[in-house]
Amino acid sequence: MLKPILIVEDNANDLALTLNALEKSRLANEVIVARDGAEGADYLFRRGEYADRPAGNPAVVLLDLKLPKIDGLELLKMVREHEHTGKTPVVLLTSSREERDVVEGYRLGVNAYVVKPVEFREFVQAIQDLGVFWAVLNEPPPGSTRVIRNG
Amino acid sequence: MGEAWKAGETASDLQDPAPPSAQALAGAGTDPALDLSSCDREPIHIPGSIQPHGFLLALDPVALTVRECSENTAGFLQTELSAIFGRRLPDILGAHGELLEAELAPRKPLNSPRLLASLRLRPEDIYSWEVVAHRTGADHTNAEPGGETAERILVEFEPTFEPVDLEAINSRLYNFISANRGTRETAAVIEAAVSELRSLTGCDRVVLYRFDEEGHGLVLAEERGEQFASYLGLRFPASDVPKQARRMYELNRVRIIPNVDYEPSPLVSPAAAGSPPALDLSASILRSVSPVHRAYMRNMGTACSMSVSILVEGALWGLVSCHHHEPRYVPLRLRAACDFVMQVVGSQIESQQNGEHLRRVLRARSIQARLLAAMAASEHYMDGLIENATLLMELTEADGAAIVMGNTVRLFGVTPAQAQVSALTGWLQQGLFVSSRLGEQYPAGAEFAGAASGVVAASLSKLNCTYVLWFRRELVATVRWAGDPQKPALPDGANPIAPGVTVNPRRSFAEWQQTVRGQSAPWSSEAVAAVAEFRAAVLEIVLKRAEEMAQLAAGLKVANEELEAFSYSVSHDLRAPFRHISGFSEMLREEEADRMSEKGRRYLATIINSARFAGLLVDSLLDFARVARTQMHVIAFDMEHLVNKEWEAVLASDGRGRSIQFSRGTLPRVQGDPHLLGLVMRNLLANAVKYTGKTDPAIIEVSARTEGQEFLFAVKDNGVGFDQQYAGKLFGVFQRLHRAEDFEGTGIGLANVRRIVARHGGRTWAEGETGKGATFFFSLPVVSSVPGGE
Questions:
Q1: Cβ–Cβ of B580/A65 closer than 8 Å?
Q2: What is the CATH number for B588?
């Protein structure tokens, strides 16, 4: 069974664009959407409405930087510090090019950092690359299942 | 002069503060180093004898019995000494004694001499006695240098040979005060006082001295008979009045030696009691003076000498000395009148000095206020001083001034050379320095003694080595001494290096001139205080400025942080809608384009392009902001390498499929941030590529040359060029000289170029002609002024 992709994104438009891009990349993974940092944390740590979900980490977390309740960097920190999620790939997905975000993001152990491109094609390309990179081309960390790209 | 004026001379106080040596004396008869400071140690307050024109009884302070008396008492009282010792005054003087003892009652103060009575001891006496008493010894003693003195009540009897007309004296004093109350000039009051004292005493010559800072006495006024030499304007050396005499003169304001050729009458005590104890005669009216002083009087040719202290603010300001060629007994009551006159003079001087002091302080304050206002108004506070150098000099009434800031020395008025001032500040300590004889403390100062023998220096900042100095010229003073003060006071024929040589007073009081060099007019205490206040105020300004700067920096930091936060939210929030417009338009095109009209598809394309461009503009603006605040990492690097790299990048992205002739001249190594300067080169090269888009073949040249302290870089193309009259607009934010349809771009690139170059301390400009290409220049300092790692 393919591990799901978790998207933590509060902006409906960005979410629609991201989902559209993922659709085009034809990944077979289930996509879980969390609309703020707290919901993302609930999913990752199996709490609240996700308390009963089956165990296992997502194949990759696409994490927006600016999020209500718990922001992206905060959630990233929690993920990295938690023993079960410490090695889960996280991609910061944001429009910020600000240096300090990058530095801070990498300091907390983010796996990749993608500036959401305005250009739709570039955006799609980036998400596709990410999907391929983490779910197909990359050797997943132990405990993850290799994602087979849908032909 | 004064009662204890004694031998001679040492100019040692004047010129050579070092202790004298026998070797120094051996050289020549004119060596100044003869040590007369032994006179300072002579215990003149315990001479053990009195002048014989009166007599003294020393009473036990409790029992009021006679413990000691002057030997001449027996003669005056026509009795045996044995009939005096151990007796009380009534036992000795009968009814008179009872009267006197009543006056000694403990409740009446005796700390200073008090007139107990005027009386005739025997009916047949042709003259009366003034009886004066005071308490001495214990805490009344002069202490050093005679050691402990016995506690006694001294009762002194002084004869008055001629009756004194008290009413006449009172009216004289009344007139004197009336006449001089309104006099403002010290000189006029002094003249009047001297004249008054001469009439009161009838002495041949009355001389008034003022003591200067070194203690030398300068004759300010005199009244004399024509046959007597004038001392007016002459200076008597400080050593003429030993230190302990000065102290005594503050306590005992009037002293008299009626007849220099007296035989002192020793103080005696009963045989059984042994030799008499030391009695402090400081306040005594009959005290016998030092033999040296009597010799001094004889040398001056005076038989009678009386002196009256002038006290100003409780300190000895000067003396009036009355001389008479023959013995003269100035009665006690007349002496009291003289004392009264000189006390009036003293208080007059005191009020004038206070007035003058106040005037000077106010003047200094007003100058100081103007200087500080100028400093506070200047961007750099020292500029305020430099622009007001004349005022600065007036603060201390200086002839010249210097403002030293590190290696920069600014000179105003009469000053030493710059290098000399620099060296001097190197020698100075922090704080305040005051000297009117710089050469004595700072030997190198002798070189410029003419310009600056007097110096006041104030350090303002230790960090920047900032000093303000005031200078006063050398005042070559001609001092007219009353007799050569440098002539040793040796007895005739004495071997100057023989041990036990006694010191004799000088014999000549003839004028002797001396030229004093290496000193300036003394700095007034007000001037020194003004500088100290000024320094404190400036330090406060400096401190305040520093605080303001810190506050400003803190404010800037906050503003910068706010700007960053702003940029951050712009990048997130402003960019998002453009992204959405663009993204959804694309989706619309992909999914619905087939069903749209041609017109609709065109509109959609415009929406997509505009959204993309808007996103680009936001990015450009953020880049521009980032260029301004990105930290610079300055290193030395090779510009040729940088240009090659950037050209490859530009060619790959913008120059694909173009025919471009690119050439690069020899470029220097520079100091700067390679990343930021890379942006500069990329911008200029991309511009060159862009604006040669319609030229075939395009020619782009990069070159450099050195001019003075700058490297000048040029990027030249043969493109569309521009109208030179708009050259100034090129580097502005969002300034464009071409229509957007013709050449794409946000108009931010050159603004970034200018900003980056400016941060490196360089300049940017451009030359062009419409249709004939353009050349963009920028300069970089050969030596970077940008600190590395800033």
A1: no
A2: 1.10.287
Residue A117 is predicted with a pLDDT of 53
Interface test with chain B among A15, A66, A116, A118, by most B beta carbons within 10 Å: A118
Judge if B588 and B683 occupy the same domain: no
B489 in a structural domain: no
- Span B591-617, mean pLDDT? 88
User: Is the omega angle on the peptide bond into residue B697 within 30 degrees of 0, that is, cis?
Assistant: yes
**How far is Cα B85 from Cα B58, in angstroms, rounded to an integer?**
10
- Burial of A42 from C-beta contacts in 10 A (0-12 / 13-18 / 19+): middle
Q: Is residue B702 assigned to a domain?
A: yes
Instruction: Summarize pLDDT for A50-59 with one digit per residue, the tens.
Output: 998 888 888 8
Does one domain contain both B724 and B641? yes
Name the residue among B571, B582, B611 with its Cβ closest to that of A96: B571
Nearest Cα residue to B51 out of B244, B290, B218: B290
Q: Are residues B613 and B657 in the same domain?
A: no
CA B9, B13, B217 angle in degrees (round to 5)?
65
Give the CATH number, domain containing residue B712. Answer: 3.30.565.10
Interchain proximity B587–A65, CB inside 8 Å:
no
| Mean local confidence (pLDDT), B159-181 | 88
* Phi/psi of residue B750, nearest 5 degrees: -70, -30
Residue B35 in tokens: 């040590």
* Token digits of residue B381: 């506070």
| Closest of B96, B108, B92 to residue B153, by C-alpha | B108
> CA dihedral in degrees (B16, B18, B19, B24; nearest 10)?
-60
Q: Print the domain residue range for B543.
A: 533-629
CB B579 within 8 A of CB B587: no
B268 is a domain residue: yes
Shared domain check, B121 and B55 = yes
For residue A96, give the amino acid letter.
S
Specify the pTM: 0.55
Do both B604 and B661 map to the same domain? Answer: no
Smallest Cβ–Cβ distance between B582 and the set A20, A98, A120 belongs to A120
What digits encode the pLDDT tens for the residues B204-228?
A: 999 998 988 778 888 899 998 887 7
In chain A, what residues touch B572 (CB-CB under 8 Å)?
65-66, 94-96
- Asked whether the beta carbons of B766 and B775 are under 8 A apart, the reply is yes
DSSP per position, B531-599:
HHHHHHHHHHHHHHHHHHHHHHHHHHHHHHHHHHHHHHHIIIIIHHHHHHHHHHHHHHHHHHGGGS-HH
Residue B192's pLDDT is what?
92
Residues B123 and B253 both lie in one domain: yes
Q: Are residues B555 and B645 in the same domain?
A: no
Are B347 and B233 contained in the same domain? yes
Q: Which of B566, B575, B587, B613 to mutate to test the interface with A (most CBs of A within 10 A)?
A: B575
| ipTM here | 0.73
Helices B598-629 + B575-592 axis angle, to 10: 150
DSSP helix, strand, coil percent of chain A (3-state; round to 5): 40, 15, 45
Over residues B96-110, the mean pLDDT reads: 84
pLDDT category at B418 given cuts 50, 70, 90 is very high
Got the DSSP string for B697-712?
SEEEEEEEEEETTEEE
User: Residue A24: closest CA among chain B residues belongs to which residue?
Assistant: B587
Task: Decide which of B629, B659, B678 is a domain's last residue.
Answer: B629
Distance between CA atoms of B290 and B46, rounded to whole angstroms?
10
Instruction: For B312, list phi and psi in degrees, rounded to 5.
Output: -125, 125
CATH number at B332 reads 3.30.450.40
Q: How many domains does chain B have?
A: 3
Please tell me the predicted confidence (pLDDT) of residue B39: 59
Inside any domain, residue B402: no
Distance CA B203, CA B303 (A): 11
Domain boundary, last residue among B604, B629, B654: B629
